[in-house]
Amino acid sequence: MEKAPYQKLRWEIVFVIISFSVVPLMILGAFIYQEFSSSATAKIQESLKTLAENRRASLDLFLEERVSQLVTLAGTHSLERLSDEDYLHKVFNIIQTRSRSYIDLGVIDEEGNHLAYVGPYYSILKGVNYKNEEWFSAVTASGVYISDVFTGFRRIPHFIIAVMVRERNKIWILRATIDSEIVENIVRAALIGKQGDAFLVNRDNILQTSPRFHGKLLEPVSCAMYREACPNFSRATGTLVEEKSMGGMERLYGVSVLQNKRWVLVIIEDPLEQLSPLFRARYLGVLIGLAGILVIVVGAFFITRAMMKELERMERKRAAADEISIQSAKMAALGKMAAGIAHEINNPLAVIGEKAGWMKDLLKMKDLGQSENFQEFADAVTKIEYHINRAKTVTHRLLGFARRMEPVSEKVSINRVLDETINFLENEARYRNIDIQTDYNPDLPAITSDSTQLQQVFLNIFNNAIDAIGKDGEILIHTSLITKTNAVAIEISDNGPGIPKEVLNKIFDPFFTTKEVGKGTGLGLSISYSIVEKLGGRMMVASQEGEGTTFTIYLPMDHEAAHIYH
Amino acid sequence: MEKFKMLVVDDETDFLETILKRIKARNIEVAGVESGYQALEALDRQDFDVIILDVKMPGLDGIETLREIKKKKPLVEVIMLTGHASVESGIQGMQLGAFDYVMKPVALDELLEKVRQAYERKLIQESKA
Fold first, then answer.
1. Does the beta-carbon distance from B18 to A352 stay under 8 Å?
2. Threshold 0.80, pTM exceeds
3. A410-564: CATH topology
4. How far apart are CA A134 and CA B82, in angstroms?
5. Where are the domains of chain A?
6. Helix or strand run (H / E) with residue A211
7. Are A403 and B87 within 8 A, CB to CB?
8. How many Cβ atoms are within 10 Å of A144's Cβ, its own excluded?
9. ipTM of this complex prediction, to 2 decimal places
């Protein structure tokens, strides 16, 4: 049996099993991940947009409420009434009870002078003239004004809301300072995750609230952490969500412009953070996938190995069966030939026999008795008959051989079969100065077996022993009864050179031979082994290099004929 | 002169001629033919007690001839003579009612001994009938 094609087949099967299992697994994994990833990304963007709009609406509502309060206050009171600081104080207190966002409240005439002021900075602000302030001209132009955040005189971040009132050709302004802490809080509520940020910028891209990472209040937006210029959020319109890579990091920007158009709400989040459940799933998926692949690979190897083993076993079995069938076909052909030859020789032999017999008959008649060569004739005829008999023995034995092809069940005396077999080889052994010693158990019972086939087995082993010894040696044959297993043991030992360890387990293999090319077929021991097996027995070998070899055959004592064929 | 009549059937002329001469020399009434058909014809013309029949012959072979002989004259004893290994045909012959089968070459005296035994059996069978 060749090893290489099996090895190749083995790898092919392994490869096919692995690729047919792993490829669909990987495609499925990639597909599912792709689907989840895109839907998760879409969801994250959607929720960011909702958040941005939500926060923007809160801010709008907050500013709207403040403006409404001031407009209502200004519209329902005359300048005169509100210029009364005691009254203004009362009003301020009422507003403050519901809304803590007001820092102070002031009434300013068209010249920019503070007519009345309620708040913590009375001494500083009471005398201030606002006429040259930027917001003053803005509010006179548009009626309502919301400033950017500034620190102003107070040194704390705040912004102002001013509303202008026209009263009998006179204008006056109601102005409130709003603590930007409230705005900060609304914006801060939009912070997401550890890397997320949220802030307000004005149209000049100046920060109106304190971001976590993107610069400082009242300074331009800074993206120093990414070592890159920030996108300009101040130019945005409406609400939009955008993903952008900043300094190698993915960032998701949600931008929404407030109603007053002055401020833009910016919410930044780290999509990786938001996607972390997906990444955990991916990590788990990859882990499970790798484990699956490992299982498949190991499984493929084991399955293939088992398959190959089975295949090899079957191949070996088939080879052995082939061997036996070849052998039996050979023997059958040989038998047929022997029978044919015997027949062809027997017929002329019969004619010769009859002719010789007739001559003998004639010689017995008296008239030939006087012939001077009578005795010569008589001797010749007798010799002819003797040799016809000799030839007959040969042909009849050939026919007997032909008939003995199938294993038979008969009572066999092992000791006698051994003796008969030794007789065949005695001449050869004597010529080579090999001493054949027998040590039989005389009480060995007759066993049910096939003497002809056993003879073949013994002959094989003796032949091998004689060949192994070469010249000058000893063969010892020992028979014994093993009552425990109900078997007969036959030990055949020689003191030849022994069999090397590395070939000892091959000697029963078909076509294994140590003899020169042409001298041995390598079939002898293989056939012997199968014969012994067929007869229900076992054959074993023990050998010590330099000391000799012992073959031991165990044959069952009561061997039913049926067992031979099973 | 012995009391029985023999017929030898063999396609080998040399063998047939010689064995006939030898049997006749022993004062036994014997005839010889070279094929199965001739044997059946001879059997029609006259009675025989024991027939020596070669198994392997061209034309009608020994087994077929035996079957025909037993149809015609069931009491005739037949000894099969074979140079062949076929145990099967021997056994088949016995099953078809042959007295015995003998392998060539055979010593004439042994053969005649078997013929005498066959004749004895024939006599016993006839007395029963």
1. no
2. no
3. Heat Shock Protein 90 (3.30.565)
4. 147
5. 4-62+190-274, 77-182, 278-403, 410-564
6. none
7. yes
8. 14
9. 0.85
